[in-house]
Amino acid sequence: MPLATRLSFAPRHNRSGRRSVSLITLGACLLLPCTVRSQSFKAKDLGPAPQLQTNTLQDRTARLNLVFHDYWQDTLKHSPEMASTIGDKRYDDQLSDYSDEAYNDSLSRGERFIERLGAVDTTGMSEQNKLSKSLLVHDLVDQQESSTCEPWQTPITQFSGIQVDLPMLAGMLSFTSADDYAHYIARLNKVPAAILQISTDMLLGQEAGRSEPQFIMQKVLVQVNALATGKPEDSPFASPLQRFPAGMSEQDRAQIRTALLTAIRTQVQPAFGHLAKYLAAQYIPGARKDPGIWATKNGDACYAYLVQSYTTTNLTPEQVYQMGVADVARIEPQLLAVVHQLGYKDLRSFHEALVNNPKEHAQSGAQLIGLYQHYVDQMEPKLPDLVTKLPSAPLKVVPMPTFGAADQVPADYQPGTPDSSRPGEIRVNTTDASKRLLTQVEAIAYHEGLPGHHLQISLAQEQTGIPEFRRFEMYTAFVEGWAFYSEQLGKDVGFYQDPYSEYGMLENQMWRAVRLVVDTGVHSKHWTREQMVQYFHDHTAMDDITIQEEVDRYIAWPGQALAYDIGRLKIIELRAEAQKALGKNFDLRAFHDEVLDAGALPLDILQQRVEAWIQQQKAAGHAKLHKLSTRTTEGN
Predict the structure, then answer these.
(1) pLDDT tens-digit profile of 480-516?
(2) What's the number of domains the chain is made of?
(3) Domain coverage including residue 518
(4) CB of 138 within 8 A of CB of 32?
């Protein structure tokens, strides 16, 4: 499941693997691979400036920390919505600048930060400072490389963009004073200018040969029309009127209500109405008909970049495709073993029976939410068997906001604020609940909540003694890889007692393996949408509503879904390596602590850290044995 994928306010709707300083994308600006592939910035460009090499360690450390501070402040300033979601109210009356000038300016600022980082020699500094510099350099280089895709020219899909992000923003903000409402209303009054910028971006993109597929934009048009019409008080933008602070006077409430509804009626709805007209009359008729990004300008190069950025590897689309085919073949016998246990002769007969079995479908949205809560509750007391460090942030299971939910995943995770004033949330999609199978709910609960996203992200946000930007870094391959790996941890602590749930866990593995095939299939091998759907039906028992949502997700979000299985497989590989090297001294909790301790990392840096930890554990074990041996000899 994507990590709150729909909110990706900044930097500039970058559809790369970089989500470094955004809690929400989810969609997603995720962090770059550690291996620098940019042709613009060579290793020699990142070395210390000769005139600065004689500076003291204290001076160099201070200068490095200043770069970290300035970068974070620059990010908050130019990503005002994201700043608001983490509790920084300085920019609550602002919207991001969506113009092409702003995008180019962000690249220029990134170059200057790279130059400043390159002028700082980290010799003698702490390992944390060295790691922080390395991560930020690679984040910034990835931003430069993302220009291969010109992401500002395709700023909206059914999963992300102003028509999805902005309606959800109000639910993530605190409204405790009249000023909070005044700032929110000022932000709404800026919507027309933002939509004009976005429309211009799309026009320029279409002229340059970049557009989203027609059927994807038809979904967007439905979303936009819903925001352009209806009573202002029924708009999702009016939700803050339902939660006035207790001490606010009736007079203030009345004034705020009038001003907010006026902003919706006179600014927000007309602006989305203009966007709807542009989409219907101009953009959609001229949008591309092929689903794959290969059909856009520079599409093959863009997809190759996205594959490497999301996975933090140097894998090619063809290599990922072959990995997927092999993984599908590996998982099928395991699924078949469970199917035989349930009394079915083959996967097809089980699939047919499952799809037609009302007992394995949700009866209501409330039942779905209750099941997710049940699995979270049963996992929580088992966490000390898996890790030694637990987050303090609370977790809630809530319905997914209904606006746009028809195009979304079965469930996702929305991180809370660092101060826990807003809890982390598993948001359950209750749309068409009776059409949703229950087999995967247990695994998804572990993925989105505990020990998955909520555990990992909360621990990362609660880190101390590191630059702020690192507390909010999210590499898709790490974040989703850990969450996917967490699904099997339910098995490690004795869950999945129901064979249907065990099947669901294995089905999730098949689901992610299928992703490797169909994502690369559509974007690299020119598959049709129908081929993608058929491949899902051939290899999974997933309900059709989920298959349709997933297929359109991969089309709209090239490369992102590849990170899950690749990240999980890397963690499994490192766990096996540690178990083999340490034998009876292997401690699963200590291994998990090491994986999670530094927050999200590119997979190659994660491997380096874990392998260094293995050597430390071996050395400690040898030292202990030597000490015991010496004592025994002395005793004799």
Answers:
(1) 999 999 999 999 999 999 999 999 999 999 999 999 9
(2) 2
(3) 309-564
(4) yes
Instruction: Provide φ and ψ at 602, rounded to 5°.
Output: -60, 150
* Same-domain status, 191 and 211: yes
Whether omega before 270 lies within 30 degrees of 0, making that bond cis, reads no
| 131-167 exposure pattern, b = at least 16 Cβ within 10 A, e = fewer | bbbbbbbbbbbbbbbbbbbbbbbbbbbbbbbbbbbbb
pLDDT tens track for 196-217? 999 999 999 999 999 999 999 9
DSSP state of 361: B
DSSP symbol at 188: H
pLDDT in tens, 336-347: 999 999 999 998
User: How many CB atoms sit inside 10 A of residue 90's CB?
Assistant: 13
Task: Give the pLDDT score at 620.
Answer: 86
In a domain, residue 144? The reply is yes
Give the C-alpha separation, 467 to 469, whole Å: 6
286 plus 365 within the same structural domain: no
Return the sign of the alpha-carbon dihedral for residues 50, 51, 54, 56: negative
The residue among 467, 429, 420, 435 whose CA lies nearest residue 448 is 429
Residues 6+ away with beta carbon under 8 Å from 523: 292, 293, 294, 299, 303, 317, 554, 558, 559
Q: Assess if residue 225 is contained within a domain.
A: yes
Confirm whether 607 is domain-assigned: no
Residue 240's H or E segment, with its range, is none
Cα-trace Rg, the chain: 25
Boundary residue ending a domain (536, 564, 592): 564
Distance between CA 446 and CA 440 in Å, rounded? 10
Residue 17 and residue 312 in contact, taking contact as beta carbons nearer than 8 Å: yes
Dihedral pair phi/psi, residue 107, rounded to 5°: -65, -40
pTM value is: 0.88
Is there a single domain that holds both residue 178 and residue 256?
Answer: yes
Q: What is the DSSP letter of 400?
A: P
Predicted pLDDT at 584? 95
Let me know whether 290 and 263 are in one domain. yes
